[in-house]
């Protein structure tokens, strides 16, 4: 800001010096020449057919007027120059009927303009009109006044620029200081939003929105790490206790429980790795396959507690990763099998430009206010999502992430039964 102000100040000073030293005198003299020229031309037209019988009357603000014949004699004059010799010896020439001269006598100077008339009542003559230059124009006091005024004006403009830029940038500095106080340990703080209602205020609002999203992301990351460590600690602890108890004392049931703990630990680690890959935006693939056949294969391959009723529309094609979408369908079937009471229903259909998969069960259902929370990582609903059921709380979050990675979505929709509805773009 300082550099910009100094540069602007220098440019303005240079422009002021040029204006005062060169342009102002030129403009003033040009205006005087125009006045004298206008008066001279008027007199020239008057004497076309008559002579003055007395002094030439002043023309506007021009009072020094003369008519000079070809021999240099003054044949008519205004009262201001009566009895005086010609105002100048300069005469029009080279085919130009007009001549301009600057005459200085003593301390005064004047601008003289002459216009020729070859057919006047006096014969060939030149009509001269003269205008005195202002005293200040030839006085040393004028540059002092002008330079002083220019310096004061430039100083005022410099101060205004400094104050204006500083006033505009002050809220930006407040935003910078506010951001400087925010750390990764405390993302709850926000920058102050100025009441100006301009772009700077919009910047502050955007910064606060970004901080809110960052805080939410960090909080979700911390919660994920905490939940993951808790989920891993439980099967590891159980497995260690069984192993430390001694091999000889273990029954078949104990070994089966140890294997279950190890399998659960392996499943959780696999889910965490898959979620890490999904969060990293790994390429999903571009295979084209029939979605209904994939659902039928997963339903037949996966032994479940409850029978599965299929209603599959043929030739519903999608494009993406067959392995990932198979994992998605397996998670939905596993979820319905775990929480259903008597049966699981699965349907595949084409609806417009979407391929829709519905997986429903007749379990206790999910309350309306909890239908988004079940897609949060490591989230279970009180009774039905108890850890005793063996679920890790990652199945539905992984399923939604896979769906969205393929340009679709997974939601819980209304109905007489618990309905998980997958929508994917048809190919």
TrEMBL record:
It catalyses: ATP + protein L-histidine = ADP + protein N-phospho-L-histidine. Residues 166-219 form the HAMP domain. Residues 227-427 form the Histidine kinase domain. InterPro entries: HAMP_dom, HATPase_C_sf, HATPase_dom, His_kinase_dom, HisK_dim/P_dom, HisK_dim/P_sf, Sig_transdc_His_kin-like_C, TCS_sensor_his_kinase. It comes from the Bacteria. Its EC number is 2.7.13.3. Keywords: Kinase, Membrane, Phosphoprotein, Transferase, Transmembrane, Transmembrane helix, Two-component regulatory system. This is histidine kinase. It is an enzyme of class 2 (transferase). It comes from Nonomuraea composti. The chain crosses the membrane at residues 6-27, 141-165. It is found in: Cell membrane.
